[in-house]
Design goal:
- This protein has six helices and eight strands.
- The chain has an eight-stranded mixed beta sheet with strand order 1-2-3-4-5-6-8-7, sandwiched between helices.
- The chain starts with 13 loop residues before the first strand and ends with a helix.
């Protein structure tokens, strides 16, 4: 019996949700991304960036050539409202982060964008789990993930590390419905 081929992250031109869509990030998005990443309130739990547009553009040029991650601009009514990135595939698990939503986002944007991440990764790419870390000080986000079913696996001085498994015994829609009812 041969081992299954590793699951690969693939970029998608567009991922469509109920009210949001994801589109692949391009160099043209550098100024928008930089505006989110240099916003003191939004970026305080992210890795620091220089604030230089040319550096963000160079990063996006390198990303365009990469085949190990997918970086999306989150849009609402064709207007950019955030970013999210899938990366670090490890067997059947992927990592996601760089999740930043603009303050003027619709109220459902966090929930819908998280569901879209899992729908794309599980339903379209074939992953069955996710791993990620959240800064300890980012209480709203780690509470969101824990309510979503993520299990804290370890911690460092700065971060909580999490894992979440796709439910094997029930359809994805049932798990989503159960989560929404618990809120």
């Amino acid at each position: 019996m041969s081992a299954a081929a590793p699951i690969r992250l693939r970029k998608a031109a567009r991922v469509v949700g109920k009210t949001l869509s994801f589109r692949n990030a391009t160099v043209d998005d550098a100024a928008f991304i930089l505006s989110l990443r240099t916003d003191a309130r939004k970026s305080r739990y992210l890795s620091a960036v220089s604030g230089e547009l040319a550096e963000q553009q160079a990063w996006l040029e390198r990303y365009a050539q990469a085949d190990d991650q997918a970086y999306f601009i989150i849009e609402y009514q064709d207007t950019p409202i955030g970013t999210v990135r899938l990366y670090d595939p490890q067997g059947a698990s992927f990592c996601w982060g760089s999740w930043i939503l603009h303050s003027s986002r619709p109220s459902q944007a966090a929930m819908e964008s998280a569901l879209m991440v899992y729908a794309y990764a599980v339903d379209h790419l074939g992953f069955t789990a996710a791993h990620f870390d959240v800064r300890k000080g980012n209480e709203r986000v780690w509470q969101f993930h824990e309510r979503f079913g993520a299990v804290r696996t370890t911690e460092t001085e700065l971060d909580y590390r999490y894992r979440i498994e796709a439910p094997a015994s029930q359809p994805r829609e049932s798990a989503i419905d159960a989560f929404l009812m618990a809120r």
